[in-house]
Amino acid sequence: MKHFRPSALLVLAFLLIGCPPGETAWADLAETLESHVRFLASDSLEGRLPGTPGIEMAASYIAGEFETIGLEPAFGESYFQEFDITLGFTVEAGPYLKFGDGTPVPSHAVAALPISGSGSAGGMVIGALPEEDDLPESDLAGHVVFHGIPAQVEEERWTMMGCDGVLEYMRSEAARAEELGAAAVVFISGSPDEPGSGLHHFPLRRSYRQVGIPVLEIAQSEAPDLDISGPAGAGTCSISVAIEPRSVKVKNIGGVVPGSTQAGKCVVVGAHYDHLGYGDIASSTPWRREIHNGADDNASGVSALIETARKVMESGSPNRSMVFVCFTAEELGALGSEYYCKHPPFPMENTTAMINLDTVG
Is beta strand 320-327 parallel, antiparallel or unpaired with respect to 262-272? Predict the structure, then answer.
């Protein structure tokens, strides 16, 4: 975990809370803020990616703090506002790949690609797609195309921001094979010079543009001795895979300090609590699979929100109600705050202001 310095948080917290920063108050608040950040950004939470045990641990921690502070649940009798999002894909069955009458390829050496369609296919193995779209459809009909990945594509994989060049190449070639009548496409990871190359790891997206035929990847060590420089029959194979979009249950976390004279009106203080996991989404270094702790983004904002809520609660009822909300799935496109705005516990016309705490450390 990267080191965290709470000095900026302290200034922000006292500005929000409105109490003088005496020496003891500074020290106590610094210790409390740092304890929140150390937990939320700890390796045990594995980067707080939506749909993982780590973010569920964070949600339980935040709700527990709200309950300890004495906030009323914001969503009926619950601190949680649950909803479903689509995040990535799940392989329902397979992938299965077998050459001729041999044994199936081991599961560690074959994978369904995110852009794959579902289905079964079997037929003659074709070594590669033609360079141009001049091959009659009948020449590929019912065949399975095995295709290598050019070294240049691998070398320039991350040159396009927000786009995995290898996956885009795979999708383009698979779509072309489908148009030419191929039954399936299998990409070969690595090269004969590097037979130990593993399968690709692809950063997570909310959704993928899938093709209509099965698309798999196989490790070079398990691929048959194919000439992938041009079309050539090389025995038969059979394939099957079932792939579906993955639905993930996520939750915003909210608590309320009721107002005294204008309880029906509210001010929202918000901070998102999700982050990037192992760099699965929105990472600036997607080729490095490591825990992205998110101490500043946004354990810092959540910590400031918790302690602001505590001081507001201790100070007595404000005129308007104060709603403290920790949003989920912000890194996926502000999905949590969007859902809150569409399903607010207080009517939006009665929400007079919103303070957002993001990367305040």
Answer: parallel
Q: Per-residue b/e over 50-75, b at no fewer than 16 CB within 10 Å?
A: bbbebbbbbbebbbebbeebebebbb
The H or E element spanning position 121 is strand 119-126
Helices (H), 52-164: 53-69, 151-155
> What CA dihedral angle connects 226, 232, 238 and 242, to 10 degrees?
90
Give the C-alpha separation, 146 to 129, whole Å.
8
8 A C-beta contact, residue 113 and residue 187? yes
Cα–Cα distances in Å, from 179 out to 115, 127, 133, 234, 356?
15, 17, 9, 22, 48
Tell me the two tokens of residue 251. 């939750």
Q: What is the pTM of this model?
A: 0.85
Q: Can you spell out the DSSP letters for 212-273?
A: SS-EEEEEGGGS----TTS--EEEEEEEEEEEEEEEEEEEEEEEEE--SSEEEEEEEEEEE-
How far apart (Å, rounded) are the C-alpha atoms in residues 338 and 213?
35
Q: Model confidence over 99-120: pLDDT tens digits?
A: 988 899 999 999 999 999 999 9
Could you read off the pLDDT of 9-33 as tens digits, one per residue? Answer: 555 555 455 555 567 777 888 899 9
What is the rounded CA–CA span in Å between residue 182 and residue 135? 11
SS (H, E, C) 149-217: CCHHHHHCCCCCCCCCHHHHHHHHHHHHHHHCCCCEEEEEECECCECCCCCCCCCCCCCCCCCCCCEEE
Q: Which residue type, as a one-letter code, is found at position 248? A: V
